[in-house]
Amino acid sequence: MHMKFSNPTHTLTALVFASAALPLAASADTLDLVASADGFIRDGFTVDNVQDAQEANLFLVGNTDGTDELRAFLQFDLSNPLLTGATINSVTLTFTVDGGDTNSVEEIDTLQLYQTNTAFTEGGAQWDTPWTTPGGDLDSLLATADANAGTVAASDTVGFTSETMDTAIANTIGGSIGLILKVDSIDAARTIFRFTSRTPIESPSTYVPTLSIDYTAVPEPSAFALLAGFAGLSLAVVRRRK
Known about the structure:
Blueprint: H1 8-21, E1 28-34, E2 37-42, H2 47-55, E3 58-64, E4 68-77, E5 87-96, E6 108-116, E7 141-148, E8 157-160, H3 163-172, E9 176-183, E10 191-196, E11 210-216, H4 221-241
Antiparallel strand pairs: 1-11, 2-4, 3-4, 3-10, 4-9, 5-8, 5-11, 6-7, 6-9
Helix pairs in contact: 1-4
């Protein structure tokens, strides 16, 4: 089928502008960020008491026989220039299991991921410091995930995703976000999750805690310049036709 246009000038102008708009079409991309700091704290223990585990490149989350609680802390640097001005579409935080804990009860537990606005250092965090509340200052609950500490095995993953976490990441672009991971409740049964930390010695680098950010970047300035060039060309064509 052939289409006829009554005004060639208008047709040419429309085609030029349509072509010029193509470079502005934004596409989504994914940026994987490794934690800039991570570790764990244990109720009643100082950093020295958990140093051996951290040197083994893992951190522990859960509780020992209903007594001592263990929580993880993490930090991600969100100052990557790729994220500047970008639209955050979705976010996923993935932990990899270093190995199962054969003494943990086989039951489903809920892991909770909180944001914390208290500054901390990887080597300086303890159960009672630098937090105003022992165990870490828990701000917004970002996401939860269910897992079984008694059945997970090495290389299994636990992922966290939610719209609340998407918003928290979007609001922190250009800075750093602090996170605390804990189990939702402490009971008489032993529940310990062993996760690989950010500096594994023998494990593949893909096993480290990873924040995957699906984002849509703003168009490059060159795209706007190209559009302006096409617009100028179309105006010149129109004037010549007249």
